[in-house]
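Course assignment 3, question 2. Fill in each field.
Student: A.L.
Task: Predict the tertiary structure for the chain below.
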Amino acid sequence: MASSSPAHLMEEGRSSRDTTQGQPATSGYQAEHSEAGICSTILAFFSWILVILFFPFSLLWCVKIVTEYERVVILRLGRVVGGRAKGPGLFFILPCLDELKKVDLRTVVYDVPPQEILTKDSVTVTVDAVLYFRIFQPILSVTNVTNAPHSTWLLAQTTLRNVLGTKSLQELLSHREQISQEMLNILDKATDPWGVRVERVEVKDVRLPKQLQRAMAAEAEASREARAKVIAAEGEQNASRGLKEAANIMNRSKGAMQLRYLQTLTSVASEKNHTIMFPLPLDLLNRLFDTLGAPRS
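Answer field:
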């Protein structure tokens, strides 16, 4: 005769215990549900009697209208009627039994208040954002959460602090789209059981401390000055190479310098100056002095 293991015996005992305990619970639930159904039927019958007795004045409380962008969840004795939301248009309710929960399906825009956040590199910044969301399941937004818009707004504040706390200042300033997409995924997943769909999250503004702004401005100015000096040095280096090549070319030809002088004289004369100073080469002056026999200075 084969012996059973302790684990196998425990599983058999647990399954038999669940089976024996589950049957009375199921039967009790069915009895309770049937009693609730009988009570609901009796109360609905008396409610209809009231509607008929006070007709047509009772229509003021029984007939409701819902606009195109709204839905109504009807709770009759605490239970959802029909398993779905009503609207848009005209519908009928029973007085004293039905409770209406009106839900707006339009996109809601909430400004997330400025949050002081300590970034990954220990910099305190103030960040605010804007949140776009809408309700796509009215029944879930009524039965699963107390106040769906307000809960989503509070969750957006917490998510903003948690996500930005894991980012450095450089990432926060240069990767806003990736941060917004990450927040959107987190919020949409968290609010899905509430019947809320987050459509968009945008980081509006990142405010830095004044001291940090001055330090960053000084760093940027120093960087620009360094780049300007490097560019000016490269320009002078290229200009010196060009002048050297030009001097070598003019040195090969005797008339090149005279043509350069004439070109300079033409450009100076075109500016309508009263006084024109024209340089003369020293060798030309020496030859002139030798010819005239004048002493050299």
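Instructor remarks: The chain has a mean pLDDT of 76. The chain has nine helices and eight strands.
Grade: pending
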